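R.M. (postdoc): so does anyone remember the format we settled on? I'll just put the structure tokens first.
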């Protein structure tokens, strides 16, 4: 009897690179271990419908002060207050249950992976009620604010920061939790000489290099961060504008006469930029901070401390992973402290188990047979 091809469904979200990058890297990792696997990546936001897509995409761009404050209020309501949190989860289920069940039925997956909290919430609910038979994996790339990243119905939670384990366990005490590598560019796990990286990128050999980033959409006060970073002696400042072409043009015009400022759009050379740099100023938490830590950059979280970033900032300070500047006035001191105490490159992350291996360990025997039998046998324990 022929062995059926392993089928993997990954639910991501096209909001910057924070969800799509882990989805692509996971797909590559699984394909490297099981070349015959059939892997499908689906954009959850498109799956949920055009109206929700417009709402999420518009609110996620944070165009205005009012919009940002509204986002922060909504985050407090759906994360911190029990009744509104319940309503939010139920609302996600009502919106996503039918399209997710449909895509699962079409894909007939042996494993379902989510890199987006909105999808994780729905998958966890379906799994708890027995409406989803394939094991569910949540790939978590934030440090904190994990209420929707984690769910009691999820079989395996993959975390990138070991410090996240306690929060995940509080939300889903019976679920498996594994701290892994393999949710970001594999080049970050390889040593890179700073002088060589600077030379390859055309950066000065001497003086601190400061990266100023606002994620894929360049959210936050990049101009203010760049101006203050220029006050560091002999510094060169690189503004990473992601896919925000409007901001890239504005910053290029603002700093056209300053030779110590480099303005870049979207780049696939982030491992090189972090190898070359001494300091990162970043506004949206997530994988970018982890990548800086791996490369030995000091980190300052500044520029947009609302919603989930506000909660992550509290965790950065609690665990000593980054300096936090809540206002522009606090930024110069935070920059100086982070530069003075910048860590050495952290090679421990390269020794963590691979995310793809942890996922594939959920399948025993033939696809569609042993793995499914295993998860059925363990379903009771996972659901308390």
């Amino acid at each position: 009897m022929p062995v059926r091809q392993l089928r993997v469904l990954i639910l991501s979200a096209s909001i910057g690179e924070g969800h799509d990058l882990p989805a692509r890297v996971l797909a590559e990792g699984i394909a490297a271990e099981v070349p015959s696997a059939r892997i499908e990546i689906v954009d959850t936001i498109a799956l949920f419908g055009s109206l929700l897509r417009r709402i999420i995409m518009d609110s996620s761009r944070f165009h205005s002060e009012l919009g940002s404050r509204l986002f922060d209020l909504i985050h407090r309501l759906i994360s911190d207050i029990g009744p509104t949190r319940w309503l939010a989860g139920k609302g996600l289920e009502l919106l996503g249950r039918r399209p997710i069940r449909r895509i699962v039925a079409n894909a007939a997956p042996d494993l379902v992976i989510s890199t987006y909290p909105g999808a994780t919430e729905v998958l966890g609910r379906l799994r708890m009620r027995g409406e989803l038979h394939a094991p569910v994996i949540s790939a978590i790339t934030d440090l904190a604010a994990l209420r929707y990243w984690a769910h009691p119905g999820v079989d395996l939670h993959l975390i990138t920061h070991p410090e996240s384990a306690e929060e995940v366990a509080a939300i889903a005490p019976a679920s498996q939790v594994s701290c892994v590598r393999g949710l970001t560019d594999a080049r970050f796990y390889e040593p890179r000489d700073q002088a060589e990286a600077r030379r390859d990128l055309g950066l000065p050999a001497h003086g601190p290099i400061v990266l100023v980033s606002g994620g894929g959409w360049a959210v936050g006060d990049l101009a203010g961060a760049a101006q203050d970073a220029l006050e560091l002696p002999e510094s060169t400042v690189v503004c990473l504008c992601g896919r925000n072409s409007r901001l890239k043009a504005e910053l290029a015009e603002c700093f056209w006469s300053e030779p110590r400022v480099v303005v870049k759009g979207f780049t696939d050379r982030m491992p090189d930029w972090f190898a070359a740099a001494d300091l990162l100023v970043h506004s949206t938490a997530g994988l970018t901070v982890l990548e800086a830590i791996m490369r030995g950059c000091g980190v300052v979280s500044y520029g947009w401390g609302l919603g989930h970033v506000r909660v992550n900032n509290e965790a950065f300070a609690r665990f000593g992973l980054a300096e936090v500047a809540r206002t522009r006035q606090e930024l110069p001191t935070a920059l100086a402290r982070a530069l003075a105490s910048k860590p050495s490159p952290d090679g421990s992350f390269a020794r963590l188990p691979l995310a793809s291996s942890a996922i594939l360990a959920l399948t025993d025997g033939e696809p569609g047979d042993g793995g499914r039998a295993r998860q059925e046998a363990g379903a009771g324990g996972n659901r308390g």
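R.M.: ...and that's the designed sequence above, right after the tokens. Also worth knowing: The CA atoms of residues 4 and 367 lie 6 Å apart. Confidence is low (pLDDT under 50) at residues 365-384.
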